[in-house]
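Translate sequence into structure tokens.
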Amino acid sequence: MRLQEQKKKSGVGYKGFTFYFDPSITLEEDLQRRDLTINAMAKDNKGKIIDPFNGKKDLEQEILKHTSPAFLEDPLRAIRLARFKTYGHLHNFKIAKETQNMLNKIASTDELSTLSAERIWMEVHKALNRENSDNFFKILVEFNLTDPWFTNLKKVSSDGSEPRYKWAEIQRVNNFKLAKNLPVPNEFKKTTEIIKKTLDLITATSLQDKLGIIEALNIPRHSKQLEEILQLRIFRKDKDYLKSIIDTVQKIDFSGLINLQGSEVSERKKLLYHEALKSRL
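Result follows.
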């Protein structure tokens, strides 16, 4: 006999549950604890579909609807629903009105703050790996699910196909002030910082500022990634300008810096950059 699992709310947050494993728990009770009706279907050993919450109908009508009021008990379900909208086969699904009310209720509490930063980033990362990742952030904004993890999230935009570039674009349109409390991988942070510096290079007005940014970009070390980001939509207009700078810096002979120390290296670099780039900046 298979023991059915059931959990009941016993505290705050998504960890505030007590789990029960009991043969007396019916399959319908088990399915009732699922988050959405389209996930609350089963098949018996004869192949018969068991669908007590009309998940098949919602699937056909492309509707995302919560299974029961228990949806409110786990704030992570709101974040998961946002992620479901990033899937190719679900991105056009409409959220049922009654489920929208549930999302609004979750947003009005402080339950989202009980979720761990690691768990939130896990959902973000999964969303970023999907083609329709912008839907995830649109749902967060639409239903005020931004506090406390995405407090500065106001706009949504997508650029590039890799997760780190998508994340950098979301940061860009929100003034690089997004999700400071999340455990964002260093690779994502580094990509975002390179893109920010490259944008600063374009907008800088003085030669001295431009040279300082070029030095900070460390083009010889990051040349491959810089070549990649030039393919992004945001750099389309300035691609040739940036490419000429990268190519020119790549040709500079830095071998004379090997015997210099500290600030001498920086000053000498600036002189080399100035001589090579003064006609391009």
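Note: The two ends are 75 Å apart (CA to CA).
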